[in-house]
Amino acid sequence: MSSPQPVSIRPPKLEEVKKENNPYYELLQTQRDAFNTRGIPSVERRIESLNTLGKAISDNSEEIIAAVQADFGHRSSVETIASEVLGVLGEIKATKGKIKKWAKPVKPALGGLPGGRMIFQPKGVIGIMGAWNYPVQLVMSPLIGVLGAGNHAMIKPPDVTPRTSDIIKSLIEKNFDESYIAVVTGDVQSAIHFSELPFDHLVYTGNTEIGRRVMMAAAKNLTPVTLEMGGKSPVIIHDSFPVDKAIKRLIPGKSMNAGQTCIAPDYVLINDNRVPEFVNSFKEAATKRYPTIADNENITWIVNERHHRRLLDIIDDAKEKGAEVIQVNPKQETIPEGSRVIPLTVITNVSDDMRCMQEELFGPILPVKGVKSADEALSYVKDRPRPLALYYFDSDKKRGEQIMNSTISGGACVNDAMLHIANLNMPFGGTGESGLGHYHGYDGFLEFSHKKSIQFSSPRFSPSNFLAGPYPKRAYGLLRRVVRFLG
């Protein structure tokens, strides 16, 4: 019987990655060599890079809008310019104004040894894998933090939106050397190769299942990751809060980008006896916003036929299992063939075995589950994977604060939906299955920086003289007294 062979868990070196025919090895090596040669960039150089990025996006804004429109089949131009252009430019401006403050060395709090200092250094070359639902913003937002922290970047835009990916690649190549910022495009296999590279940090935005695979690939290289994923973000409406007011604040989250947003409200928990009121108010509010459905320029399409078919199958599954499906189509229009429009849809009488209560919806569909009490609603949420967002509606401010303190989610809103992501001074990220790590503003700077501790000692004296023998006879007794004092 032969002896078992040892199993190597050593991460592959760059040379080994090359031998495995990874097409992006040379580019990573080029960026790493450039980073090591150029050294840590000054704050002024980082601001210059962000200025260049902002101008490139502004100058190409019409091309960006047209590309996103072409990839989606139809997408509201207002939604695109707001989310993909203005949102990014606003984040660039906010970051430029604060980098100098963020990058300053920090002295630790009093109580330790004198002479301590913490500095923030770039990690090196950071990989960014974007998502298709906001194909510009979900690449550029982490890139802003990456550049603000002084790193180099390699970007893999989503293959689902190829025209937008080509625009991103073009504007980056025209304005930056590939040894500093580079964009690679391609299919699923390209994304696999990209995730297998030994970056100094890897950012992934997308669904949880792919996120697991990305994390496994990164783990082979001990590459730290930021995972921005999703899940089912619940809505709880307390009996004290007006239903019509809650719906007016929820509908934008289900209609913007046709609900194809990672923090979109995914399902509603409300008292059983208020479900009919919810349905009627929803129909009324949705009708006011979208009196017509077919050829309405304000309604974004589902991104492609595969995702469109998935949503239709989810609706059919609910019907087959006894749910009531209400689609808000005020004029009962026929959706033109080839159009991927789905009207705002409410599903009631839902059960947990339905796909609409198991899968992240990523569409303009809103299941409504009746409960007996707010406590039952909270238990339901706590028994499930921690969501990316939680939305709680309550007229009692103190009770709202108690709910926020007693539940765990990536982010949350009280008496509103999705607005927490708009505050660039707060971190954005998930927890558990909804994500790992944060970015936006200062938290993005920290996420993509190495926080380095440094201890400066005097040339004349060092406390380390006391760390080795021979120890004084009274040393142990003195230390025992300190133990009693601290205990």
Written description of the protein model:
By secondary structure, this protein is α/β, with parallel strands linked by helices. It folds into 2 domains: 14-229 and 439-450, Aldehyde Dehydrogenase, Chain A, domain 1 (3-Layer(aba) Sandwich); 234-423, Aldehyde Dehydrogenase, Chain A, domain 2. Helix content is 41%, strand content 15%. It has helices spanning 14-19, 25-38, 43-59, 61-72, 77-96, 99-102, 137-148, 162-175, 188-195, 208-219, 243-255, 275-289, 305-320, 374-382, 397-406, 441-447, 475-486, and strands at 116-122, 125-129, 152-156, 181-183, 201-205, 225-228, 234-237, 267-271, 324-327, 345-348, 365-371, 389-393, 411-414, 435-436, 449-455. The strands form 3 sheets. The chain has a 7-stranded mixed β-sheet with strand order 9-10-11-8-7-12-13, with helices on both faces. Strands 4-3-2-5-6-14 form a 6-stranded mixed β-sheet, sandwiched between helices. It has a two-stranded antiparallel sheet with strand order 1-15. The chain is globular, with a radius of gyration of 26 Å. The chain starts with 13 loop residues before the first helix and ends with a helix.
Fold blueprint:
Blueprint: H1 14-19, H2 25-38, H3 43-59, H4 61-72, H5 77-96, H6 99-102, E1 116-122, E2 125-129, H7 137-148, E3 152-156, H8 162-175, E4 181-183, H9 188-195, E5 201-205, H10 208-219, E6 225-228, E7 234-237, H11 243-255, E8 267-271, H12 275-289, H13 305-320, E9 324-327, E10 345-348, E11 365-371, H14 374-382, E12 389-393, H15 397-406, E13 411-414, E14 435-436, H16 441-447, E15 449-455, H17 475-486
Parallel strand pairs: 2-3, 2-5, 3-4, 5-6, 7-8, 7-12, 8-11, 10-11, 12-13
Antiparallel strand pairs: 1-15, 6-14, 9-10
